[in-house]
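lol ok so funny story. i was supposed to be doing the assay writeup but got distracted and ended up predicting the structure for this chain instead. priorities right. anyway since i did it might as well share w the group, maybe its usefull for someone
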Amino acid sequence: MLATFFHIIRILTIFLRFRLDAFLPYSKLPWYLGYTIGLLSRVFKPSKKYSRGVRLRLALEKLGPIFVKFGQILSTRRDLLDDDVANELAKLQDKVPPFDNNKAKTLIEKALEASIDEVFNDFSLTPLASASIAQVHCARLKTGENVVIKVIRPNIEKTIQKDIALLYLLARFINKVSADGRRLKPIEVVKDYEYTVLDELDLMKEAANTTQLRRNFEESDLLYVPQIHWDYCRQNVMVAERIKGIPVANIDELKNADVDMKALAVRGVEIFFTQVFEHSFFHADMHPGNIFVDTTHPKLPKYIAIDCAIMGSLSAEDKNYLARNLLAFFKRDYRLVAELHVESGWVPKETPVHVFESAIRSVCEPMFAKPLKDISFGQVLIRLFQTARRFNMEVQPQLVLLEKTMLNIEGLGRQLYPDLDLWETAQPFLERWLSAQIGPKRIIEEVRKQAPEWAGQLPQIPALIFSALQSVNHQKELQAEQLKVTMQLQRSLKPKKHHFLFKFSGLVSLAIAWFSIDPMAWERLLTINLAHLTLLAVGIYLLILKP
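and the output, tada:
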C-alpha cells in the first residue's frame, strides 16, 4: 500500500511538472479543487518551447508503458483531439525513447545463449523502432534471411505491476463511490487489461499468435503476416521476418504510390470483420504503428500486420449476439436492438422495451445517411452512456478488447478515406455470415468437425450395445421381483382396503345427505366451533382405526 501511495505522488508530480492542468475543465471542477490545483501548478512554470501536445506526450512517456498505450489509443481519435495534440501522440506508436543499445545486445545474447556473431551475419545496434514495452533491431541470419529482433525492455515488469496496482486502486474507488462507474465494471476491465498487458511480456505467446494469424490468412490477398523463426525465439526475445511496406499512417506516401485509398479502407474493414466473425481471433492492437501496406498491386493493396501480442477472441454466443445487434442497427430495427439487449441481460429484464427502443433511436438515427467524416463516434458513445445511465445498462468486460479495436479501426478509416460508408461495407458481410450460421453448409461443417470424435467411438459401439442389453435384462428381473412383492402386499392389505372404503363411503353418504337436507349447512361450515372440531377429530379417528 505504501508503494502505491508513493506511485500516486509520482504521478501527481509528473502531472504538475508537465502542466497537464491545461487539459482540465476548471469551470466544471469544485472551486476548492480548482483553486488547489491552480496553486500547485504555479510552482511548475511551463517551458515556452514546449506546446501542450508535447508536454502530454513527454508526460505519458515518463509515466510508463500503461500510459503510453493510453496515448496510442488516443492518437487514433482525431475527432476527439486537436491536431497539435493528435500529431504529438502519434509519435508514441513507435518513437518511444529506446533503452541502452548495448544492454539490448546483452539481453539477446543471454536469451539465445550465443554471441551475436554466432547467430547473425549482420546486426544493427541502433534500434529500428522503440515502443513502450520492447524495441526492435534489424539483423540477417546466417542463412541469408533479413529479420527483426524484438527484445523486451529490462525491468519493465516491475513498472507495469506498479501501474496495474494503481489502476486497481482507482477502479475500486470508482466502484465504491460512483453508481455510473459500477455499471462500467471497472475492476473487471482492469483485470482483463492486466492479462493482456502481461501477455505482451511473453514473446513466445506473441510468436504463437503471429503464426496463427498468418495461418488464418495464408490463402488470402487481404493480409500478410511475417514468418516467425522459432529456433531463435525465447520469452524475452523474438526473431521474425523483416517486412517491406509503407506505414499506413503515411498517407502522402501511399497516395504517391497510386494506392486506391477507398479500396484500402474497405479491405481494412473486411479484414476486421473476417477476423472477428469467421476466425474468432482478431488483432486487438491495430494502431497505425503496427500496420503497413504492400503497394505491389496499388489497386488491390495488401495489409501487413505486426505485433500480435494482444489478440482477442469471442465465443459463438458473443459473435451471434454482436452480429445480430450490428445488423439490426444497420437496418434501423431499433426494436430488435432493444429486445436483444433485454434478452442478453445487458439491461434489466423489467426494462420497458418500447421506451428503450425510443431512446436508442434518438441516439443512433442521426448517424445514418452520413459519410464517416461527418460522424463523431466519440459523441455517439457519450450519448449512449447517457442512455445507459437511464436503463442501468452494463458494459460487458469480454467485449472491451473488441470495442478498443473498433475505435482503432474507426480512427484508421478516418485517415485513409474519410468518405467511407462503414455501414454499407459491413452490412453485406454480416448478412452473409448470419446466413451461413443456419444454412446447410453450417450443418455439413459441424458434421465434419464432429466426425473424428464419432469415428473414435465406433469401435466401442458393440461393447456399449452388449452392456445396454445386459442392463435391460437386469431391469426386467428387478421389475418382475418388484411386481411379485407388490402383489403380495396388495393381498395382505385387501381387508384393510375394504374396511377403509366402507368407512369412507359412509362418511361421504352422510355428508351428501346432510348438505342435501340442509342447504344452509355450507354457510354454517364457515363458522366452525368446538363441536365441529370434535366431530372432525372423531371422523379422522374412525378413518384410521384398524379393523
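The two ends are 81 Å apart (CA to CA). The chain is about 60% helix and 10% strand.
back to the writeup now i swear
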